[in-house]
Design goal:
four-stranded antiparallel sheet, NADH Oxidase, alpha+beta, 8 helices
Length: 209
């Protein structure tokens, strides 16, 4: 890597309370969505935000498949749990959030100043690193979607092996991708929106030492 950044690219200004509320405090997991479609430019903007979140050595293992067409949704349907079936079929968009088992092959592209960093992730801890960093990217996705005015409904109630076989197996690009989370995406409604569950207080979940 040549040179060094000498001017701080970020500010330490607190974002306003409305933004915090939209992203975290008032945001919910939605179970029903309006039929309003999501423009492609919004999806591209969403990805361009998510990709900037930090991962170990910039390894960026997260992969995204945006299911919008009725045909694509029909392919997903047999692999959904009963409780997630109707809401997923109704949502205008369902994202298969996956991770690439061969994510390390992209490291020379993502870390051009040290392409040998690929070797850091090809050993026994390869899967752990891939899954750990992709989960970070899934969290970035939820936050970025909310920041762009979208609502989300993340789910793990599906058959990953079935989804992998249907969408990824044998594909020249996606053959090494593994599904991890499904995320319904759109404009949420209050239908089947349940009261917020409690969270642990600071003293039960955190320590200052």
């Amino acid at each position: 890597m040549t040179g060094e950044v000498t001017s701080k690219p970020t500010t330490n200004t607190l974002i306003d309370e409305a933004a915090i509320a939209q992203i975290f405090l008032n945001a919910r997991t939605y179970n029903d969505f309006e039929p309003t479609p999501i423009p492609e430019e919004t999806l591209r903007r969403l990805y361009d935000i998510v990709k900037m979140g930090p991962t170990s050595a910039n390894n960026s293992p997260g992969r995204f498949v945006f299911l919008q067409s009725p045909e694509a949704k029909a392919r997903l349907k047999p692999h959904l749990s009963a409780g997630n079936l109707d809401k997923t079929m109704k949502a205008p968009m369902t994202v298969i959030f996956a991770w690439d088992e061969k994510y390390y092959d992209k490291i020379p592209q993502l870390m051009p100043h040290n392409p040998s960093a690929r070797d850091w992730f090809t050993g026994a801890g390869s899967e752990l690193n891939g899954r750990r960093n992709s989960v970070l990217q899934a969290a970035y996705f939820l936050i970025a979607a909310r920041a762009l005015g979208l609502d989300t409904g993340p789910m793990t109630g599906f058959d990953p092996a079935g989804v992998d076989a249907e969408f990824f197996a044998g594909h020249p690009v996606m053959g090494s991708w593994k599904s991890d989370i499904l995320i319904n995406l759109g404009i949420g409604t209050t239908k089947n929106l349940f009261p917020r569950l409690p969270r642990l207080p600071f003293d039960e979940a955190a320590q200052i030492i």
